[in-house]
Amino acid sequence: MLNKHFLVSGVVQGVGFRPFVYKIAIQEGLKGYVKNTSSGVEIEVQGCIQSIESFEKKLNTQAPVLSLIKEIKSSFVEAGCLYKTFDIEKSQREKSNTTFVSVDIATCKECLEDLKSKRYKNYFGINCTNCGPRYSIIKSLPFDRSNTSMKAFSMCEECKEEYKDPTNRRYHAQATSCKKCGMSLNTSIENTLKAIKDAKIVAIKGIGGFHLVCDATNDGVIKKLREHKNRPSKPFALLCKDISTIKSMAQIDTLEEQLLLSKERPIVLVEKKQNEILSKQVAPNIDKIGCMIAYTPLHALLFNEIDFPLVATSANLASEPIIVDASTLVQKLPFVDLVLDFNRDILNPIDDSVVQVVDKKIQTLRLARGYAPKLLKLPIKSKKNILALGAHQKNSIALCFDENLILSAYIGDLDSLTSLEYFEQTIKHFKELYSFEPELILHDKHPSYESTKWAKKQGIECIEIQHHKAHLYATKAEFGLGNDCLGFSFDGTGFGDDATLWGGEVFVADQRKYHFKPLKLLGGEKALKEPRRVALSLLFEHYSLSEVLDLDLACVKSFSSEQIKLLHQSYVKEINAPKSSSVGRLFDAMASLANGLQKQTYEGEAGLMCESLYEQGFEQSFDYKIVDGVIDPVYDLLDPKLISKFMNTLVNIVVELAKKERLEVILSGGVFQNKVLLELIGSRLEKEGITYHHQQQTPINDGGIALGQIYAYMQSFK
Ligand code: ZN
Ligand code: FE
Fold first, then answer.
1. From residue 300, how far is each of 108, 136, 206 by CA, in Å?
2. Which residues place a Cβ less than 5 A from the ion ligand 2?
3. What percentage of residues in the chain have a pLDDT greater than 70?
4. In which domain, by residue range, is 126 found?
5. How confident is the model at residue 94 (pLDDT cuts 50, 70, 90)?
6. How many domains does the chain have?
7. Residue 484, exposed/middle/buried by CB under 10 A (0-12, 13-18, 19+)?
8. Which of 3, 36, 395, 652 is labelled catalytic?
9. Does residue 98 fall inside a structural domain?
10. What is the distance in A from the centroid of ligand 1 to the CA of 533?
11. 622 and 496, same structural domain?
């Protein structure tokens, strides 16, 4: 008779881990106990060596789908007592708090089946240990009902029975409830469906906030939504009943199908195909659509009655966080015709995640519901508690303690007061959740980012990390790279070491060795939103003022000749014309010159446009020079194939430098969200036998900066 003690850490609470341990212990005829502690799951088993070994094997290989074991510490111990049974003991709270929050998961198949059973018939709040809300409803660890917003609902006798039965799927399902004891809706599903069919705009409460929902086949209602939200052309995401609805509108491959059906249920960007179903208003001017499949029981009940796809966009005002309560919703979005609400609070707002398949791999564009908070294990232990604040756009934050790095969900652009509040609220909540006090703050180098200003007010040691270096280190963090790499950081604009705006940088190890020839951004900040200003600047590089005035180009005509003369003055005298080496801005210029995009109505519009206009199979490109590390393409700005030639030129530049430097390649920064560009580069590098990396599980855009800041610090300052 032997006693063995185990301590399992990682994502092991609220995921059916204890019943799993109970089940395998009983199978092996072992006695002892299992319990949740603040440092993980603690197990003691008593029995013969064969049974213990076989138990251990199952523990290592058969853990529940939602769990993520980080480490199992085990040792044989003195038998203190003789156990009569195997028991699941009550949770115990300890001082050190190192367990991890699990994420929100789509309704599982079994629960969807249960929706037809008598007990759960059409109950919109059904869930079990394999599915349902987690992060969005948690206040503090451990994940027990009393620490969640389910605290407000006490279980009926039947729910208690299920909760207490280790053989039941709802054993210790902290968020379980049924029709009798659970939540209620403010209005009926029938009313909601009627409103949708009548071309109304409806707000529906989901996991991490409200969606604005309408019929995606109806031009009129989508136009109305666009007007009310002041969102002329940014694509809307679609919520669909099932995979076949998506297949009728889009061309999807196996990996895209897997992602659409995965338990995380992200929005997946897929290629739109010719179809009669979808309104052209959903994603004007681009050939992609963002689709997701119904992921809550409430969605399932709605789709019982309808087959057509729905527009489902986060309910918020531009640049504000997602709205989580009905009263704020009616106040901020008074145009909404009907609100479908229920009485469980959302404690942590969280948007839908967005991913796409690039180079046959997942690429994360927005890390949120289902993926966040994301835990990464570092190769070395951190000596300090570190808080990283990310950048400005697509902000997210990260914490680091011991060997753990936790990346928050997408917070958004820090442009409004409410998004700043959300940023602060996330930091506060993370500090509580992980019992974390920062000893060091990492922030972007940009002096006027709100995150930088916030850092400097905290009275804690601060270190700035250059933006494009952080992009490359985010990739290193994801793949655990410690060695020297050739890093391409192609991006929008970020603050460089020389106080100019960078964004087309090539690093060898930590040294910036090459960069694109800087352009003058006419009008500074304004140029970030008006591609025509970047285009004009490029034209001034190539033509005299009088030649520019004579050009028959839409981007020139969008200015008055007085404006052009003034801008030329600022170009010559370098007044309000900061220099930038950003490749992102070059895409803006090309979209303006070749396709008349003069003002962007959303971030990334130019890049998406260029992607749509690229001619596959077209191989011509522009020449370029590289002198003293300055990359200088020789454009013909009036070329009818401007966009394709420009993108091919970028590919040639990356490949030539990769062949020259012969190091592993990293491709990071917002520009590489361009699927066409990344795939062209990938296939060429592969032919050359050069290893390359680009982020998959963490955002390749500024959503990954916080992660990169921490890894850069760990590698450079250790
Ligand atoms: Zn379930
Ligand atoms: Fe960036």
1. 11, 20, 12
2. 491, 702
3. 99
4. 104-183
5. very low
6. 5
7. middle
8. 36
9. no
10. 53
11. yes
